[in-house]
Amino acid sequence: MELLERVKILCKSKGVSQRKMEQDIGISNGASSKWGTSSPSIEILQKLSDYFEVSLNYLMTGNDNSATMLNKRDENDIAKRLENTMADLDADEALMFSGEPLDDMTRELLKASLENSIRIAKINAKQKFTPKKYRNNNE
């Protein structure tokens, strides 16, 4: 199940339309309909998590297995990897479009996208490599 499907189910269970949810969390009308083909920023995912009172893990993966939840060490690792990646891109002057440096808004969008990708990769790796004896029995 993809994020868009989970959001539709959560909206239904909360008794709100997608449009109402979008207004409540402060995103443009129709933005959630694109989540079937693209991922929202981590900020929007956090707003969704707070709005529906579910974990980020549930929103991204569809399960809420405590063995795959990110801990403080994981969060620090994500932050460090993101910082290193952005520093590498800045140092190599790779953050350019048509020979021009990226503007601040585009750079922040790129950073949010990278953070989301690193976070998803970390969660997927934890799910894949968590020993069976530590997994939830529902899997």
Briefly say what this structure is.
With 139 residues, the chain is mainly α. It is built from six helices and two strands. The longest helix has 26 residues, at 104-129.
> In sequence order, what are the helices and strands, one letter per element?
HHHHHEEH
Order the strands across the largest sheet as they lie in space.
1-2
Percent range for β-strand residues: under 5%
Low-confidence stretches: none
Average pLDDT level: 82
* Principal-axes shape call: flat
Helical fraction: 55-70%
Q: How does the major sheet shape up?
A: 2 strands, antiparallel
Task: Give the total of beta strands.
Answer: 2
Feature tags:
flat; 139 residues; mainly alpha; single chain
Can you tell me about this structure?
- By secondary structure, the chain is mostly helical.
- The protein contains six helices and two strands; from the N terminus they run H-H-H-H-H-E-E-H.
- A two-stranded antiparallel ribbon has the order 1-2.
- Helix 5 crosses helix 6 (104-129).
- The longest helix is centred in the C-terminal third of the chain and has 26 residues, at 104-129.
- The chain is flat, with a radius of gyration of 17 Å.
- The two termini are 15 Å apart.
- The model has no long low-confidence stretch (mean pLDDT 82).
